[in-house]
Design goal:
disordered C terminus; 20% strand; D-Maltodextrin-Binding Protein, domain 2; five-stranded mixed β-sheet; single chain; alpha+beta
């Protein structure tokens, strides 16, 4: 692994995309006798589970065929649907500019690079809908080895940090470095690593830190070899995954684009109704643990599955443009022209949904109505907890962390074990893995935090206990059960 100069790796990550001018040879419509064959090529990211409602679920459940037009000009059409999965957004853009892919799913940073690449090539692409996102910026993060002494991003000055160049995590990391007042060329060493390589480097202690996007920011901690010390929600810069389409394709086949968007809306509905079931399906296809899928996309998850293009998501794209400019990269992208909601509005209308109502709705999927033990209403997700018990189809919900801890101890006496325990950061509401959170007990209330310094500050302000780990709470609960 060789560190590269900051300016040179930016050139490799971004400028290469913008120079692709060759039109691909893939046919978009051919005539066969009295019928027409229309090719639909969709670029997805199966391992990026925030794409699931536009990728895995639509493909595996056959939802696209359900909505593809079959009357009027499409009466005698034969569809050829091609799915291509990538590990990040930039290579999707490469194939889109070359005419090999029609629709692409990608994060905000790669989406802006997509718009710029198309304009540079004398073409255009359109940002048509959101698949998943966080108005607070959750989903991108910085990880360190599980036993690293680093507690916050400030502890990484002078260290080596890897990140997939050109990804949304790259943008988040650069803005975080800027917010600390650091010079990215002098105060840290940035190297390019894919998620797979970055995870291996963390496990082998070959890198001081690794910045990444969904799902790796929670997958690596869940697998016990990394710990999160910075989350994108800290900066409150919105982040999202959206549907980008070649402008030429949208002009020629708008009904097909609307059909695809309707399929994503149904996928979203199905996941909302049975998040555990479809988390298992996503695991089966992507290899990402269902517990992590649920953490991002389930009730009160790190990201919200949302099809409406909220103002915050537009802002996130604009921030991505400004980040490129911070890198001294001239941008041809115009977010005003790039983002168009007319297709998703039509898809919502045809699905019998009120787009404007969804646009105004920021409420996450609620955890549950009542506590699994006490029956008390769950009114504050920041204080709630969840346990996914092994061999149980549904995740159990609890109004408080203390109740969940006690319930887990009771489970242990019956020989049952947990797949995952979820809590929420008291300040931000960010969903956390209990094993890696910090806790403060104040009177009868237990609060969880992503960062130790936040837990310490809460304890000082509210007269709480010293900072505890999940094991400490478990031990106290086990003692109470034994008595």
């Amino acid at each position: 692994m060789h560190p590269m100069k900051f300016s040179s790796h930016i050139l490799l990550a971004f400028l290469g995309i913008a120079t692709i001018l060759t039109l691909g040879a893939c046919k978009r419509g051919t005539s066969e006798g009295n019928s027409e064959t229309i090719h639909i090529a969709i670029g997805v990211q199966d391992s990026t589970i925030s794409c699931a409602s536009g990728g895995i679920l639509v493909r595996e459940l056959g939802l696209l065929d359900k909505y593809l037009p079959k009357t009027g000009r499409y009466a005698n059409v034969h569809y050829e649907v091609e799915w291509k999965s990538f590990t990040s957004g930039p290579p999707i853009t490469t194939d889109m500019v070359a005419g090999k892919i029609d629709f692409g799913l990608m994060g905000d940073f790669p989406s802006v690079a997509n718009a710029d690449a198309f304009k540079t090539a004398g073409k255009r692409s359109i940002y048509t809908a959101i698949i998943s996102g966080s108005v607070d910026g959750g989903g991108n993060a910085v990880l360190v080895p599980a036993d690293s002494p680093a507690e916050t991003l400030s502890d990484l000055k002078g260290k080596q940090i890897s990140v997939p160049f050109g990804s949304s995590a790259h943008g988040t990391l650069l803005r975080a470095i800027r917010d600390l007042g650091w010079d990215p060329e002098k105060d840290v060493t940035l190297v390019s690593q894919s998620p797979e390589v970055g995870g291996s480097a963390l496990r082998g202690h070959k890198i001081d830190a690794h910045a990444d996007f969904v799902p790796y920011t929670e997958l690596f901690p869940f697998r016990k070899y990394a710990r999160k010390i910075y989350d994108g929600s800290t900066a409150h810069v919105p982040t999202s995954v959206g549907v980008v389409v070649r402008g030429e394709y949208a002009d020629r086949y708008p009904e097909i684009l609307v059909a695809y968007l309707r399929a994503t809306i149904e996928a979203d509905r199905l996941f909302t109704e049975e998040p555990e079931k479809y988390s298992e399906l996503v695991q089966k296809v992507s290899g990402v643990d269902a517990e992590v899928v649920y953490m991002f996309q389930g009730p009160a998850g790190i990201q919200t599955r949302d099809y409406s293009i909220k103002p915050e998501y537009r802002k996130g794209l604009e921030v991505a443009v400004s980040t490129f400019k911070m890198l001294k990269k001239e941008m041809n992208a115009d977010i005003g022209d790039f983002v168009q909601d007319r297709f998703i509005r039509q898809a919502a209308k045809e699905s019998g949904l009120d787009y404007d109502a969804r646009l105004a709705n920021y409420a996450p999927l609620p955890i549950a109505e009542h506590d699994a033990v006490t029956g008390r209403p769950i009114t504050d997700a920041k204080l709630a907890a969840q346990i996914w018990v092994k061999d149980e189809p549904k995740v159990r919900a609890y109004a408080s962390i203390a109740t969940a801890s006690a319930a887990l101890s009771e489970l242990a006496t019956t020989g049952k074990t947990e797949r995952a325990v979820y809590v929420h950061d008291r300040n931000s509401g960010l969903k956390l893995l209990a094993d890696f959170a910090y806790f403060v007990r104040s009177e009868a209330e237990v609060s969880a935090f992503l960062l130790k310094k936040d837990a310490e500050a809460w304890s000082r302000a509210h007269g709480g206990s010293s900072v505890l780990h999940w094991g400490d709470l478990r031990s106290k609960s086990l003692q109470a059960v034994a008595k």
